[in-house]
Specification:
Blueprint: H1 14-35, H2 43-55, E1 59-63, H3 66-76, E2 83-88, H4 94-101, E3 105-109, H5 120-132, E4 136-140, H6 152-161, E5 165-169, E6 177-178, E7 181-182, E8 189-193, E9 207-211, H7 214-224, H8 246-277, E10 290-291, E11 297-300, H9 304-316, H10 347-353, E12 356-359, H11 367-384
Parallel strand pairs: 2-3, 2-4, 4-5, 5-8
Antiparallel strand pairs: 1-9, 6-7, 6-10, 8-9, 11-12
The structure holds pyridoxal-5'-phosphate.
């Protein structure tokens, strides 16, 4: 078995997608250059309309990136010092960073070993701990890690019971579905990212917020442009410059057109990996009724040592692999003084950070390449045994 010798295996192959739609992208860019509306040109509201429809949300507000998308919601809801926002520790730094920007406590919660997502039991423990510390439990930020929606049937009632609201960090999960509900239509609001490597990516930075709440939408729209009021030169709140470029909106319109097909292709890649690998290693588990956007295909090795060996074997075979994330946030320098559910470590986060690794994942992975990658991994197992 061999992979076409002159072709490198990419971890995420953006060029394969671009080759498919290049003429459409070129034409979309040319249209923007022709009309010259670089800031908030007509492609921006057009994209927002299409995204809201896709996600089944009443409102979509596009913005500068996924981090700002999270921040816009927290700012609009007036998160401040003394508030606690509950967030899993096993995530990208941006999830917690925006909470800290506002002087609030990023309160770190442990995860479930099967889904890598927020553990509802740990969340309950964290809320009780926050109250004891005199913090106001304000909001919950579940993360749809690696593309799989968090356990919302458990998390939403916990929020309701404690008079809190839910902001979904779905930077990796846009395109997924939770028991018949599209990601973007769950909780008070959903933030996503169009960073190039995300399931729906542009050619630069971009992001969006989804909500059904008109008042929240209006405040975020004001915050996005420096807190503007009805009169452009009477700013009514402290805002930011958080707009999405028209060029990126034009590119995203073309990418959104092929996104449904790409989601099917991602699922097919995951199924193929699963079939080849399930007898050798812990594969990602997707409960019935959930659809993942498959931002990452993540395996769990038996030990830290085994992960090192498997990654080394893959590297030798010319297969790139990555570790998301090698260090949970509560152990990182900038975040180590923030509170955690247990008051000390978060054992599942710490364990999984030492054992997980991700294989190449994108819609255009060919069967032959998936087989080669899987065989390279299986060979490494057989050698070690
Ligand atoms: C990528 C990512 C973000 C931030 O998105 P940017 O567009 O890079 O700002 C936030 N949260 C998670 C979980 C992410 O993966």
């Amino acid at each position: 078995m061999s992979v076409k010798e002159n072709r490198r295996i990419e971890f995420i192959d953006l060029a394969a997608q671009q080759a498919l739609i290049r003429p459409k992208i070129d034409a979309a860019i040319a249209r923007v250059l022709d009309h010259g509306g670089y800031i908030m040109g007509k492609e921006v509201p057009e994209l927002e309309k299409q995204l809201a429809e896709f996600a089944g949300a009443k409102y979509c507000l596009s913005c500068s990136n996924g981090t700002d998308a999270l921040a816009l919601v927290l700012m609009a809801k007036n998160i401040k010092a003394g508030d606690a926002v509950f967030v899993p520790s096993f995530t990208f730094a941006a999830s917690a960073e925006v909470i800290a920007w506002l002087g609030a406590a990023a309160f770190f919660v442990d995860i479930l070993p099967d889904s890598f997502n927020m553990d509802p039991a740990s969340l309950i423990q964290a809320i009780a701990a926050a109250k004891k510390q005199g913090l106001n439990p304000a909001a919950i930020m579940p993360v749809d890690l690696f593309g799989q929606p968090a356990d919302y049937d458990k998390i939403l009632p916990i929020a309701e019971k404690n008079d809190m609201w839910v902001l979904c960090d779905s930077a990796q999960g846009f395109g997924g579905m939770y028991h018949g509900r599209k990601v973007g239509s769950i909780g008070l609001a959903t933030a996503t990212s169009f960073f190039p490597a995300k399931p729906l990516g542009c050619y630069g930075d971009g992001g969006a917020v989804f909500t059904d709440d008109k008042e929240l939408y209006d405040v975020m729209a004001s915050l996005r442009v420096h807190g503007k009021g009805d009169d452009k030169y009477d700013n009514v709140r402290i805002g930011m410059n958080g707009r999405l470029d028209t060029l990126q909106a034009a590119i995203l319109i073309e990418k959104l057109a092929i996104f449904p097909d790409e989601l099917i292709k991602r699922q097919r890649v995951a199924d193929h990996y699963n079939n080849l690998l399930e007898n050798f290693i812990v594969i990602p588990k997707l409960p019935k009724g959930l659809h993942s956007a498959w931002a990452q295909y993540t395996l769990t090795a038996a030990s830290n040592k085994q992960r090192d060996e498997l990654q080394a074997a893959l590297k030798q075979a010319g297969v790139p692999s990555m570790v998301y994330y090698p260090k949970p946030l509560h152990l990182q320098t900038a975040y180590k003084n923030f509170p955690t559910a247990t008051g000390k470590g978060l054992p599942v986060c710490e364990d999984l950070a030492s054992r997980v690794f991700s294989l190449p994942m994108h819609p255009y992975l060919e069967d032959e390449t998936i087989k080669y990658i899987s065989q390279s991994l299986i060979l490494a197992f057989k050698k070690a045994a």
